[in-house]
User: What shape does this take?
Amino acid sequence: MSIRQINKVLIANRGEIACRIMWTCKEMGIKTVAVYSEADRDALHVRFADEAICIGKASSAESYLNIPSIISAAEITNVDAIHPGYGFLAESEIFASIAGDCNIKFIGPRPEIIKMMGDKVEARRTMQAAGVPILPGSPDPIANTEEALKTAKEIGFPLIIKAAAGGGGRGMRIVRKKEELENQLETAQQEALAAFKDGSVYIERYIERPRHIEIQVLADEHGNCIHLGERECTIQRRHQKLLEEAPSPAISQELREEMGRVAVKACREIGYSNAGTFEFLLDEDDSFYFMEMNTRVQVEHPVTEMVTLADIVFNQIRIAKGEELRYAQEDVQIVGHAIECRINAEDPVTFVPSPGRITAFNIPGGPGVRVDTAVYPDYVVPPYYDSMIAKLIVHARTREAAIRRMRRALEMMVVEGIKTTIPLHIRIMEDERFQSGKFSTKFMEEFNDGR
Ligand code: MV4
Assistant: This one.
């Protein structure tokens, strides 16, 4: 077994995830290289790195999405590998393959796998072939109204039209009756073309009140694969997750094992390597269906780390070195309950971004509390990027105790000078329906109506 030396890693990202990746690199004795935009000169990821290189102007397109700049920075600093984090270029097949061509290890799966999962129609087909349950729908993109009507006849209404190049909820249309189909198909195709430069769409049966459950997997480059259980990600607003938990209050040990088995089997069959996430829709009768696969580390990975004691970034780097997984499925145990609240620089009611200077900042502590952030007192939150400024994660023995712990941690987190979503999270922790664990993707709509 040949082990690739990884002594120096370039982190092609910013914010909390860049700092999070550096935590693990430092603990592994790996040197770090930060890249940053002109707007991020004072950012914490720049300060923590052993070396830092400016890669362009403030806009993402001119910096964190600029492949030639980032590859040049990697060449100049002579790194062995690039960690892409999430967002930006994390799921760019082109970026991953160019890195490989330059003999720089991309910390993630092979470019072909990234490409395949980026095409939601192909991902669906591949998963079905690998034995993963999918919703009844069209095996190919829908070309015209005739094809749409034929599919509708097979699966019935309501149905959902999704963009093949989409994901994360962009460009979806729900169709409830036959008469709306032609119109909605055209609209969906136009929207997909405008948003993704690809008008291909496909059709699936629509589930009215699903939960969003995802399974974390780790696969090495030798065919070993394990899962680290699920994350409950149902509470979202406009396809933006607000908070996540592990384990899900909706999932039995039996169902967890079943979903995990399916995911692991699929990884082995497609030759998946590195960390990955299977997104599933869970129906009210406990049926689950493949939605998408994410080929990167995710924002919400800490809840899995808290309940398994695994360091997902550490595993990503070990796998990239060509090492074998250190534990088998039997070694993975889910202990206690973790919740993550995403703290955004936004108005807690309107969700309008609220960038600007943070005049006071206090991080809560105590047992079972983790804060992933890259902001500090007097830091100016730039308007150019995602509005998430911190992730507050708690772990406790039970879900009830975790909710109580989260509530007090939220109350003891101080962010002044900008608006944040902290007050919203406090209200959610106090909500009876959240506490009961019985909710669907409609939670936020109903939450706001109920005020
Ligand atoms: C669905 C669905 C119901 N039925 N597909 C939203 C994000 C994107 N990945 C797919 N999404 C959905 N797909 C079928 N066949 C409902 C959603 C959905 C949703 C899913 C997860 C979490 C929140 C959501 C909010 C609205 C709709």
Q: What stands out?
A: The chain has a mean pLDDT of 97. The longest helix spans residues 178-196. The pocket of MV4 is lined by residues 135, 160, 167-169, 204-207, 210, 212, 236, 239, 281, 291-292, 441 (CB under 6 Å). The first strand starts at residue 8 and ends at 11.
